[in-house]
Automatic annotation (TrEMBL):
Alphabetically ordered keywords of this record: Cell membrane, Lipoprotein, Membrane, Methylation, Palmitate, Prenylation
Record domain Ubiquitin-like: where: 8-74
Cellular localization per UniProt: Cell membrane
Organism of provenance: Populus euphratica (Euphrates poplar)
Topology with respect to the bilayer: Lipid-anchor
TM spans (from-to): none
Coiled-coil stretches: none
InterPro entries per record: MUB (IPR017000), Ubiquitin-like_dom (IPR000626), Ubiquitin-like_domsf (IPR029071), UBL3-like (IPR040015), UBL3-like_ubiquitin_dom (IPR039540)
Pfam families: Rad60-SLD_2 (PF13881)
This protein's name: Membrane-anchored ubiquitin-fold protein
Annotated function: May serve as docking site to facilitate the association of other proteins to the plasma membrane.
Gene Ontology cellular-component terms listed: plasma membrane
Gene, per the UniProt record: LOC105133510
Amino acid sequence: MAGVQDQLEIKFRLTDGSDIGPNTFPAATSVATLKENILAQWPKEKENGPRTLKDVKLISAGKILENNRTVGECRSPLCDNPGGVTTMHVVVQPSSVEKGKKGANQAKQSKCVCVIL
């Protein structure tokens, strides 16, 4: 019975309302490993998918999960559903390199020079 409790059934809800999973993971699985699983199973027909782990944010029980934490550490007593499926929300954000490029372009465009004579 203890072995069953060490396993969690998780599905990942994408922003368009579709799901990846559910899949079963040991409680010792890291959040980074979950993100790798999402990258591997991301539907090829969906546009703007994540390219790296840094592009993916996982949210469970209203909290953004950190890569170095385990699934067991991230469980919320409010969301525990023995024998049920836990839903984690997936948010895809562009990598910081793309954000930096956009930010630099916006800074150039919004630059204003005033001269008083």
